[in-house]
Amino acid sequence: MSEEKKDVTFEKINDIASVDSPNDDAGVEASSDDAPELNEDAFKGLEEMMKKLQRSDDLEREVAEWKTRAFRLQTDFDSYRNRMAGELSDAKTTGSAAAIEALLGTFDDVSRAIDAGVKDTASLIPGLHSVRDNFLKNLAAFGAEPVPGKGAQFDPAVHEALQVIPGATDDEILEVFQTGFTLNGKLVRPARVIVSKQVN
Predict the structure, then answer these.
(1) Would you say the C-alpha torsion 19, 23, 28, 29 has a positive or negative sign?
(2) 41 and 129 share a domain?
(3) Are 113 and 58 part of one and the same domain?
(4) DSSP state string for 17-37
(5) Domain that holds residue 99
(6) What share of the chain in percent tops pLDDT 90?
(7) Using one digit for the tens of pLDDT, what is the confidence trace for 119-155?
(8) Is the pTM for the entire model greater than 0.90?
(9) Same domain (yes/no): 75, 132
(10) Is 66 inside a domain boundary?
(11) How many CB atoms lie within 10 A of CB 18?
């Protein structure tokens, strides 16, 4: 290599070294002034981001807990509903069995009245009266009562007027076509009746 080329190369190296030299006071001051500010801002940003991530994790955990609670409540409600449906079905079966048992007594009474009526027709009517009385007693045991009939005052809440005919008084029930019944005070079937209307 020639002497001129060596000098040029060394000059270039020196120029580069003088620009990038770590001993350059201006370069050191600039980096020492700028670096802490950038690092502090970056640290604050990172700290804020970590807080947000932590909050996000907390919210996710809370949502998961509420989902678990909701699922348990739904499961408990389904179990309760199934249990109540089973109990209601059992109650209906038990109630039906008791009603059928009471009606079987009426069936026996009707059978005896028919057998007695075949042998002696005169005993048929008294026998049927006895059957009806026993049947009403059985209904009363379940809370069922007949609606007041012939001779009672007409009550639109429990009576259905099929016909209105002239009479000595207003709103007197003269005849019952179909007996009405209440169950524990609530109307099951209205009585179908003929009602009087006073004529002036």
Answers:
(1) negative
(2) yes
(3) yes
(4) HHHH-TT-HHHHHHHHHHHHH
(5) 31-142
(6) 26
(7) 888 888 888 888 899 889 888 988 899 999 999 999 9
(8) no
(9) yes
(10) yes
(11) 10
The length of the chain is 200
Q: What is the pLDDT of residue 15?
A: 52
* Cα angle: 116, vertex 120, 121; to 5 degrees: 100
Both tokens of 67, joined, read: 């989902």
Whether residue 152 sits in one domain with residue 108: no
Joined together, the tokens standing for residue 37 give: 């500010």
pLDDT in tens, 37-62: 557 777 777 778 888 888 888 888 88
Domain match, 128 and 170 both? no
How far apart (Å, rounded) are the C-alpha atoms in residues 9 and 44?
47
Q: Are 83 and 119 in contact (CB under 8 A)?
A: no
Residue 101 and residue 110: Cα distance in Å, rounded? Answer: 15
Q: Are both 151 and 89 inside the same structural domain?
A: no
Lowest-confidence pick of 8-22, 97-111, 159-173 = 8-22
Which amino acid would we find at residue 99? A
How far is Cα 103 from Cα 90, in angstroms, rounded to an integer?
A: 20
Q: CATH no. for residue 184?
A: 2.30.22.10
For residues 85 and 39, give the distance between their C-alpha atoms in angstroms, rounded to a whole number: 68
